UniProtKB/TrEMBL annotation:
Biological process according to GO: iron ion transport
Alphabetically ordered keywords of this record: Cell outer membrane, Ion transport, Iron, Iron transport, Membrane, TonB box, Transmembrane, Transmembrane beta strand, Transport
Subcellular location field: Cell outer membrane
Protein name: TonB-linked SusC/RagA family outer membrane protein
Predominant location category: membrane
Keyword Cell membrane belongs to the record: no
Pfam families per UniProt: CarbopepD_reg_2 (PF13715), Plug (PF07715), STN (PF07660), TonB_dep_Rec_b-barrel (PF00593)
Lineage top rank: taxon: Bacteria
Signal peptide start and end residues: none
Domain Secretin/TonB short N-terminal: 64-115
Length: 1111
């Protein structure tokens, strides 16, 4: 096995080396190409031509931009110009001789100016000033390649790599115009001094006033869709260790459903929705994720370095998501990564160590004395007529009592958990000139879970290159490698420890772990210390290329291509000496421990997966302003995607020893299993278009159409169309609206559209067969029917409407956004149960079965109470609230059958599929509580009569687990570099079936530990009023309204404090930026109900420290 590991490590090293060499080759190739391009040779044969025509020829045929004053050169003629394979220097030297002008080449700019000592052709420009200056950004970083021009002329220069320039300026010209791509142009008035410092501001219009949809960019003021934009600065204020939790903390509309089973498991993706569920349990409710223009999995976003993110845009309604057509029903999350900036080499390093503690406040278990007393009261040791049985009971009781007297009181919940330490590192290197920019990103994140030896390691490496040609064509290339290793705790399911008895010893007198406990249960600590492994490793290589051509006259063409390949390997090994293979008896002769037969001992599960995805799209944009009032945006596009997924796996048993855990040492496949493999291919194509019209910045209309084709649906329904139409009114831009009004923004908008969902299996519409390799028919391999195909299977569609209001006053010191939406999903896909006579080996017939309706609203309020720029002080408060009501409008008879199966469940509420009801509704038998006379629970039957007998047919709808109102409340205080941020999450009005009361209090098994409330409020004698049945009646507790409770919660989800050091102070140490930060997550949680939280994996409280430094 060690050889195998060594082979894997060697292979991994080779892949990394190949990857790095590829990056170097790509970079070198590009630089060489740029160099060769800069040395381009010219062939010119011209007679009687103006000098400016030659300069224009050089400007168009080379990469150089030629700057000159046309009024000085347009009268200079050249008799003949003849060159063969000449350099630019040779041509310019010849053409400018005897003209009184000279040239200067700086980077990719040629500046033509008068020679020193020459008289200017304009008499008023006799005195020349030599102006020196520096151009930098707001962070005091120099901007190389910035253009500096004398206003009103073409005379100018460009800054060097240090952002410095020198320019000869006529004395009577007092204004310079400074510009740089991505920054606002600035006019500089020249005074008496001959040196200037110019600070340019970033042009943040694209971030604040433009909506990024992934395909097109639209002016926000004329956009009808519902979007939320999260900027890099917003992400830096939070550090939850989970990008999805961070998004949910910023926008409550991105709702994460609390997972009470998996808690804070670092290897479990959270369950999240945008505006309710639109599918049954077998369909995805997760939104679509778009990363730099391409669809990616939620797991990729889960594992990516948050420092790479520039913006996150949540697209919520049909008008916003329609361009993604059949994939947009659950919303779209568009993520744009940081692009390298031109300038000197800049290095940014981010370090975040994290300390986490298990949150066990939801548990209130009995100690050793209480647990033994509970067993006694429950009658476990009551004597009967059998003397031998009575003797055994006494022995059991006193052996446990003896342990208690000796001080045994094991708190089992603390055994598998630990205070974890994690650390994350991120490095980003960027630089270049305006035409060629590069960026290198590297990250490593070792996230440890609070259960021992669990965690998730992530590593990423990427290289980006941006090449611009004359501000017309931009070529972007990004190649990356990502590695993830998720490892699960060998201590098993956390719920096991909540059931173990506290009077049990962990180790024997020799200090060795006890494999079997007093009641015969396995000791999970014994298994945890045995050699074993349970991990999943994933590697992904990705190549992204885009070409953006600004064609002129408002046209822009963009093409994108992405190729990714991922490999995954999952391995789980269980030792042959694990307690599950231990027999209770020992060898009578040797006294050694005996085990089950060797061929059944130990287990190794191995599975591998390979996914190759290719995605491409082409878009054409056009914008035009007509008569200063009519603004048109037109976009057309095409998208093609394909994905090939292969996997295989097997389970082996019969390992003689932990030293021989390689598959070759296994004796056999696990009983009733064989090696398995699968392959699936999905292909999709889409055509889309968008038209946006804005009249005088007052009225706007937005329409989109998409036509999709997919291999996942029936032969008769492979294609479908989707569309949306929206409009709005910017009332604040009306002439009758007072410009001095306190209200500076008032906008109403409405949209309606049809989107779809295709997050389903690849071959759901096809008839599937399974080969029976263990049942040969002669020399042939027979195949059995797995599921019958459905050629009529249609696309699941969703009709959405949204009405919104955007309001701002006092220069946006108070802002409000309100949205009311209605969503109706038709043709929902689900697997249905079919008759056994059809010969299916599984219930795999897929059909369009019903309709779901979601109705809700969202409210966002932002209030800036203090804004004093002179004191560098700002205090703001925000409030977010949302509501969603889910209703099943129509279901089929087959789905009603599934509902009948769920309804028969006796101990836990199941999904409710009833027309007119919510999918999150709770059904239980109505209860009047415990009868004081008999101690039995009184149930109310459907006809109103009372009964002591529980009947599933008497279940009624008694609540809904969806809250009536949920959201975030937070505040932000900024003062002189200090930033304090606090966010509370709240949820009100949800109904909750308290499973802790049902199974860990009243229905508790006295042989296991339980909630301390098991000892209180029990019925004892006739006439006693109690919440729970007699303590000796520990039969199964069936579902009743007695345990349905109203849940209201408030929790401090995030608290952060950061400080940005002053730049003036940092300059002394040649540091550009320095930020220290502290984050605390999930500090406390208040709830109206008491329950055990984190059943299979506990929740956690984490504290994160941050260091961010830039050079």
């Amino acid at each position: 096995m060690e050889k195998n590991y060594e082979r894997l490590r060697t292979s991994a090293r080779k892949r990394v080396v190949v990857f790095l060499l590829t990056c170097c080759l790509v970079c070198t190739h590009t630089i060489l190409c740029a160099s060769i391009y800069g040395q381009k040779r010219l062939d010119i044969v011209l007679n009687d031509i103006l000098l400016v025509d030659v300069l224009k020829y050089i400007d168009t045929q080379t990469e150089y931009a030629v700057l000159y004053r046309s009024d000085q050169l347009n009268k200079i003629k050249l008799k003949s110009v003849s060159f063969k394979d000449a350099t630019v220097d040779e041509v310019l030297s010849f053409c400018l001789r005897n003209t009184g002008f000279s040239y200067q080449i700086n980077e990719n700019t040629i500046v033509i100016s008068k020679r020193v000592g020459q008289k200017d052709v304009l008499p008023q420009q006799k005195v020349i000033r030599n102006i020196r200056g520096t151009v930098m950004d707001q962070k005091q970083d120099p901007l190389p390649g910035a253009t500096v021009i004398i206003k009103g002329t073409t005379i100018g220069t460009v800054t060097n790599t240090d952002g410095k320039f020198t320019l000869k300026v006529p004395e009577d010209m007092k204004t310079l115009l400074v510009s740089f791509v991505g920054y606002k142009s600035k006019e500089v008035q020249l005074g008496v001094a001959d040196s200037v410092t110019v600070v340019l501001e970033e042009d943040v219009v694209a971030m604040e006033d433009v909506v990024v949809t992934g395909f097109f960019e639209r002016k926000k003021e004329g956009y009808a869709g519902t979007v939320t934009t999260i900027k890099k600065e917003d992400l830096q204020k939070l550090s939850t260790g989970n990008i999805f939790t961070t998004i949910s903390t910023i926008d409550a509309g991105f709702k994460i459903n609390e997972d009470n089973v998996n808690g804070s498991n670092p290897n479990k993706l959270p369950d999240f929705t945008i505006r309710g569920k639109g599918s049954f349990q077998n369909g995805s409710t997760s939104p679509l994720f778009i990363l730099d223009g391409f669809e990616v999995s939620a797991e990729k976003i889960f594992d990516m370095d948050v420092n790479r993110i520039e913006t996150i845009t949540l697209l919520k309604d049909a008008s916003a998501t329609i361009l993604y057509g059949s994939r947009a029903a659950n919303g779209v999350v568009v993520i744009e990564t940081v692009a390298p900036k031109a300038g000197q080499l800049r290095v940014t390093y981010d370090f975040k160590p994290t300390i986490a503690f298990a949150d066990l406040t939801g548990y209130d278990l009995m100690d050793a004395k209480e647990k033994l007393e509970y067993e006694r009261l429950a009658g476990l040791y009551d004597h009967t007529g059998d003397l031998n049985e009575n003797y055994e009971k006494d022995v059991d009781y006193y052996s446990r009592y003896k342990n208690i007297l000796e001080g045994v009181d094991t708190y089992w919940l603390s055994q598998p958990v630990e205070n974890s330490f994690s650390h994350a590192h991120s490095l980003y290197v960027e630089g270049g000139v305006e035409n060629v920019r590069y960026g290198i990103d590297a990250s490593y994140n070792q996230q440890k879970g609070v259960m021992k030896e669990s965690g998730r390691d992530r590593m990423g490496l990427g290289f980006s290159l941006i090449y611009r040609i004359k501000d017309k064509v931009t070529i972007k290339n990004y190649v990356s490698y990502a590695y993830t290793k998720a490892y699960n705790s060998p201590y098993g399911d956390f719920s096991i420890y909540g059931r173990l008895n506290p009077y049990e010893r962990v180790r024997d007198d020799k200090g060795e772990l006890i494999p079997l406990l007093l009641n015969g249960d396995s000791n999970p600590l014994y298994d945890a210390e045995l050699p074993g492994r349970d991990f999943t490793k994933t590697q992904e290589f990705n190549e992204q290329l885009s070409v953006d051509w600004i064609m002129g006259d408002g046209f822009r063409l963009r093409g994108q291509l992405s190729v990714s390949k991922s490999n995954s390997e999952t391995e789980k090994y269980t030792s042959p000496f694990a307690s599950q293979y231990v027999l209770e008896q020992r060898n009578p002769e040797t006294g050694t421990q005996e085990y089950v037969p060797i061929e059944k001992r130990g287990e190794l599960s191995l599975s591998t997966g390979n996914v190759i995805s290719v995605a491409s799209n082409v878009t054409l944009n056009y914008n035009k302003l007509v008569a200063e009032k009519h603004l048109f945006y037109l976009g057309l596009g095409m998208e093609v995607n394909t994905s090939n997924n292969r996997s295989n796996g097997y389970r082996l048993t019969g390992f003689p020893d932990d030293r021989y855990s390689d598959p070759s040492f296994a004796i056999q496949y696990k009983e009733d299993t064989r090696a398995s493999s699968s392959e699936s291919v999905t292909r999709a194509i889409g055509f889309f278009g968008n038209l946006n019209y804005i009249y005088d910045n007052r009225f706007f209309v937005d329409g989109s159409l998409r036509y999709d084709g997919s291999s996942q649906f029936g032969a008769d329904n492979k294609y479908a169309s989707f569309w949306s139409l929206g409009g709005g009114w910017n009332i604040h831009n009306e002439s009758f609206w007072s410009k001095t009004s306190l209200i500076n923004m008032l906008k109403v908008r409405y949209s309606y559209g049809i989107t779809g969902n295709q997050e389903f299996s690849a071959y759901q519409a096809k008839t599937m067969y399974k080969f029976q390799v263990d049942r040969l028919y002669g020399t042939l391999i027979p195949a059995t029917l797995m599921g019958y195909g459905n050629p009529d299977l249609k696309w699941q569609t969703q009709r959405q409407s949204n009405i919104g209001l955007d309001f701002g006053m006092m220069q946006d010191r108070f802002r409000m956004t309100f949205n009311y939406y209605r969503k109706r999903t038709k043709g929902m896909l689900t697997s249905i149960t079919v008759a056994p006579s059809l010969g299916f080996s599984s219930d795999s017939f897929t059909a369009n079965l019903g309709e779901i309706k979601n109705v809700g609203y969202e409210l966002n309020l932002n209030m800036v109470f203090i804004r004093d720029r002179s004191k560098d002080l700002e205090w703001a408060v925000f409030f977010q609230g949302a509501n969603n009501e889910n209703t099943l409008v129509k279901i089929s008879n087959q789905l009603k059958g599934i509902n009948d199966q769920n309804n028969a469940n006796k101990t836990t509420p199941g999904a409710v599929y009833e027309e007119g009801q919510s999918m999150s509704a709770i059904k239980a038998v109505k209860s009047l509580g415990i009868d004081p006379v008999t101690g039995q629970e009184i149930f109310v039957k459907r006809d109103g009569t009372l009964s002591y007998t529980w009947d599933a047919n008497d279940k009624i709808l008694c609540g809904d687990s969806e809250p009536k109102w949920f959201g975030n409340i937070g505040t932000n205080l900024f003062w002189k570099g200090w930033n304090l941020n606090m966010v509370f999450k709240y949820s009100f009005g949800a109904d909750y079936y308290n499973q802790t009361l049902a199974s860990r209090v009243e229905g508790a098994n006295p042989a296991e530990n339980a909630d301390r409330r098991v000892l209180n409020d029990r019925w004892t004698t006739p006439g006693s009023h109690a919440l729970y049945k007699n303590i000796k009646e520990y039969t199964t507790t069936f579902i009743s309204t007695r345990f349905v409770q109203k849940e209201n919660t408030v929790q401090l989800s995030s608290l952060s404090l950061s400080y940005d050091f002053p730049r003036e102070w940092l300059k002394k140490y040649r540091v550009n930026t320095l930020r220290l930060s502290f984050f605390a997550n999930d500090l406390f949680r208040l709830s109206t109900i008491k329950e055990e939280r984190g059943l299979s994996y506990p929740f956690q409280r984490s504290f994160v420290f941050g260091l961010n430094v830039g050079f």
